[in-house]
Amino acid sequence: MAESNKTNRHMTAFITFIAAGIFLLGAGLIPLLANAQQKALDSAAPIFPPTTTDYPALQLELTDLQGKPVSIEDYRGQVILVNNWATWCPPCKTEMSELQAYYTAHAAEGFVVVAIESGEPADQVASFVQEYGMSFPVWLDPQGTALEIFQNWNLPSSYVIDRDGIIRLAWTGAINQATLEQYVTPLLEEIK
């Protein structure tokens, strides 16, 4: 009986040691993976190409941070990047500075980012907007309407609507400024 208890203690200690090792290994990999994603976004090269599409944008009406009704139609004639995101989403946080930089560089050419936050309260979204220095329009989507319209519940996800109201590009996942320059800038240069 004593030998059996001793064996059980050794087995428990061994399993605990293995579990601790796996935990430490996993905890060590998480920062490395997050760092790799950040380096990919920070690099000058495009991350990955968008899906090319060609269908009319559906009507989308929500409210902005001030509670005013807003619509995609409000931006007709501009190139619109609709970005579905959330304050708690790490890749969403990572791409915000990239979206802001591209918006700042191209707003005068008729480009706008419409950032649609999926589900958080207005005060929390407003704090995020201030912290990240976002100067483009931010809409609230407490019911997930935009996710439903685009039939994509992954965050972040982005869609580029041309000046005629046609969705031309779609991404799921974070994008960087180099990717936007490569794929969105040609749409800005198209003559209406």
Q: Which class do the helix and strand fractions yield?
A: alpha+beta
Head-to-tail CA distance between termini: 87 Å
Query: How many β strands by DSSP?
Result: 8
Low-confidence stretches: none
Strands of the widest sheet, in order across it, are: 1-8-7-4-5-6-2-3
Helix content estimate: 40-55%
3D shape = elongated
Could you walk me through the main structural features you see in this protein, from its secondary elements to its overall organization?
The protein is an alpha+beta fold and 192 residues long. The protein folds into two domains: 1-42; 49-189, Glutaredoxin, CATH 3.40.30. The chain contains six helices and eight strands, in the order αββββαβαβαββαα. The chain has an eight-stranded mixed β-sheet. The protein is elongated and about 85 Å long. The mean pLDDT is 86.
Please tag this protein with its features.
alpha+beta, Glutaredoxin, single chain, 192 residues
Set out the fold topology.
Elements: H1 2-42, E1 51-56, E2 61-64, E3 69-71, E4 79-85, H2 90-106, E5 111-117, H3 122-132, E6 138-140, H4 145-150, E7 157-161, E8 166-172, H5 177-183, H6 185-189
Parallel strand pairs: 4-5, 5-6
Antiparallel strand pairs: 1-8, 2-3, 2-6, 4-7, 7-8
Provide a compact summary of the structure.
This protein has 192 residues and is α+β, with helices and mostly antiparallel strands. It has 6 helices and 8 strands; from the N terminus they run H-E-E-E-E-H-E-H-E-H-E-E-H-H. An 8-stranded mixed β-sheet has the order 1-8-7-4-5-6-2-3.
